[in-house]
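Budget justification aside, the reviewers requested a transparent look at the raw inputs and outputs of the sequence design task funded under Objective 1. We therefore reproduce one unedited record. The lines immediately below are the structure tokens for a 83-residue chain.
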């Protein structure tokens, strides 16, 4: 059975050694891709957050310019109306 009930186990030292090496090798082979995927995810997440921060700053600048333009337009309208 493959569910780990111990139906078939190695009895010799060589068999136990091969089983131990296979177990550790399998753990490393499965663990390395998870590390790479996790590290790449972290890098992409950082890049995404940095981009979002830049967009937010650019939007704030744009809104500031728009408000300044509105104030300038109102000032011009006021000056033209008071002449």
């Amino acid at each position: 059975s493959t569910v780990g009930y111990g139906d078939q186990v190695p009895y010799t030292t060589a068999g136990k050694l091969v089983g131990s090496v296979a177990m550790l090798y399998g753990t490393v082979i499965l663990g390395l891709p998870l590390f790479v995927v996790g590290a790449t995810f972290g890098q992409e997440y950082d890049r995404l957050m940095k981009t979002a921060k830049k967009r937010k700053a650019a939007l704030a600048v744009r809104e500031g310019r728009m408000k300044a333009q509105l104030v300038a337009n109102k000032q011009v309208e006021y000056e033209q109306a008071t002449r």
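Helices lie at 13-81. The chain is about 85% helix and 0% strand. Computational costs for records of this kind are itemized in the attached budget.
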